[in-house]
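Replying to the earlier thread about multi-chain prediction with a worked example.

Input:
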Amino acid sequence: MDKGRKKINISYFILFTVFILILEALLYSKTIKMNSLNENLFSIKTKSNKLFQELSVKTQNFAPLQKDIMPIQDIFIFKQKQDKRYPFIYNRDLIYSLTNKKTLEENSLLDKAIYDACDNNKDISPFNERYIIAYNNEKSGKCYSFISSKIDKLLNSGLPQIWYLLIGVILIILVSFVFIPKNNKNRVILSVITILYNIFFYIYSLIILRNPQNIKEIDKIISITKSNLTQTFIIIMILNLLFVAFYISKLNQKLTDTLIKYKTPYLYILPGGLGIALLSFAPLFSGIILSFFKVKYGNYSFTWFENYTDILIGGLNNIANPEGFYYTFFITVIWTAVNIFFHLSIGMVIALVLNKKGLKFKKIYSIIFIIPWAIPNYITALIWKSMFHKQFGSINNFLVYLGFDRISWFTDTTTAFLANLFTNIWLGFPFMMVMTLGALQSIPTHLYDAAVMDGATKWQQFKYITLPMLKPALLPSVILGIIWTFNMFNVIYLVSGGEPNSSTDILITEAYRWAFERNGRYGYSAAYATIIFIVLYLYNYVTGKISGKGEEDE
Amino acid sequence: MKILILILFMFSAVNIFSKSITLWHAYRGKERKALEKIAKNYEQENKIKINLLAIPYDAFDKKLTASIPRMQGPDVFIFANDKIGNWAESGLIETLNYYFYNKKRLFLTLMFDTSIKAMVYKKKLYAIPLAFKVPVLFYNKKYIDTPPESFDELIKISKQKMNKDKKLFGLGYENTNFFFHSFLYFSFGGKLFTDNKKVLINSQEAKNSFKYAKYLALETKIMPEEITSAVLTTLFNKNQLIFVINGPWFSAEIKKSIDYGVAPIPMIDEQHKPKPYMSNEGAFINKYSSKKYEAIKFIKYLTGIESAKLRMKEGGQSVSVSSLYNHINDEKLKAFNLQAQSSEPISNSSLMNYFWAPMTQSLKKVIEQNVSIDKALNSAKLKIEKLLSK
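Result:
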């Protein structure tokens, strides 16, 4: 290695170290913010106590009446930063429940008293809530705190934090690829520095959080922060260790080598790669992370694998329960299998006919057969839905014309399933047809000529020439078709809508319903989606193995 | 370096500040135009920008609950009252007692009492009523001139006309949707739940209402089958349906060439007066909004008399200001007002969430799947109780 190159390496190294340190500081910035909040809280505590006394005098009935709810020990009023006009604020909801007023008017009177007090004290305003209130529940022994939105987010949301971390780690890895030359020593030093820095920051934060004024409520708040901090720390440490392991591994060397060697092509695909990362991978990972949370009206709480265990071994899992996982899975598998069978057979038959030499108006036929595929599938689905209407639908009218009774399609599982099936067969066969047609045209005709010379029948020609030659072209489209059908949301949702009693729902529509129709269980729904992903991934893996093996045999 | 500068620039571009209020609503057509006009008037008077954003009705609740805790929601929004319980419990909306109920009491006495009560949850006022929506009877004037007084009369007229015209149907309403079944349910004295979470849906009164719905759907032979809102619109616009029970939004879907009238739903029999669900729309304020002062000023204007006149006249809205109905000549608005006198405000309790789907499901079972009323309602009751106990 020559000297100039070494110099560049060192400057890269320093730059990168600084970059990582800044990144980590950003990751911890939430904690820093929290600390400053706490300090503010103490500084205005005396003021707020005074205000509280004033309030209780004005409202007279301020003594807590419901013992089981909350004897107040202290109310903390938090100074609001952004808006200097109205620095103070209080929590009305809490005061309502404390005073146990009965009617709307009484509540309003109380409200007015509080507002008057606020008016007299020019520092207080009813607008822009940035308050923090803590109180003790003696019965349950728990301490509750009503905290304004921003602080609330800091304390309770695990999701954004993990997000920051992930983005940070992805950035670190990306940067390391580009900047750090393949010198193991530098990498190890860098890793050690980041780890030391993390440990230092963790200890520093703990020292800041250890407050000399030992007040119960604040302690509780701090303990939440502490556990949050520890969580963050542990996650960062794990990621750091992974990072180091990756650094030292041979894989990294290989990757860096290729990256440096093919810098320009990688630069060219960078925009596309970023697009995919943002539009496909980011939602995928956020979905997987979400599946470990319980979501209720915007509040996230981490529950480990509760959503998964609920789905797989929870109470709904009677095989006959249409809302349970296994029933839906069973329906989905049957749905996929039957659909693919018909797609493939119909598509192949039509393709064979269209491929016949000397057929007139070939182009017109193929355009007609592609139409179902060309129309947006939700429009097709809605048209079919109205065609299945019991009284006005054309399908029932046709049945009546043939002398049958009208069928109420969506009141029975079998007929509703059939209705879905017809719609999706209509939607799906053109794809297989196009694929087969393309593959057929690439089969060299001399094979058939030779077969005819040998006296092979049409069936033998099909069996021994056409089918084997079609296989490599059709296999990927079948795999793709299976994935599409497995997740065919539009048809199920728009045609049968899961009727009756969601017994014709497939996994993807069931996941949708959990999120958007059954009290917003987003975490549960995300777990569903993750399970679908895993199932499809496994399927893909297995078929990949099998087909790969098959090709090797040949 | 260039990239860094670019990134910095992008971040700085986001932080442009301007004085404006964001309002979300689910209005379409005339109502939307009236609202836009009001906002424009207000903008000119007060020099503040009102950003109106129309959100599809079905997506409204999801968008709100997802965006408000993340500080991305609107400052003001207009929606029906039935989700107040949920929103209040999860702390998404601001209480408005002080601003309106006390200091400006006079202001609220202009409104219908039921409309204000609909906005109160656990003794606190959460929204200012704008308008109410209640299902009424739409009739095609091609077939009859005066609306029927009772259901017997309605059935009789329908049968007469249907005998002459084989393609014609007498009555249509979404009978497997609990919102529209409500006019029977509450008319027969049915109740959904008590304050201490006792489920009352399998009472004799509830069963009677189901019985009558089944009788209308299957025995009278005047109704089409598997009714959806699309079926109703198509049939009514093709002159193939005489009576429709539907909400005020239905008039926006009727073709201009159809001559129709609006009347209160006729008496079911001598003892039973129909009591459909009334939903009240109100203006809410986001609890996390940073412009509450401006927002409150605006909804005072929005719900006030001047704006109500405009909404009524140009938007065709049945506004919540009662005094405006004294001088009005519009037959349709009068019918809505009359029906509102005999209606059941939708409960804004958070418990309501557990009832819609099972009730609709049991209506489907009874009317379309030939399940007995007892069985359907008992299983719905079990299901709801299971959900409530969680």
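Chain A has three domains: 3-34+155-261, 45-78+80-129, 311-553.

Feel free to reuse this layout for your own posts.
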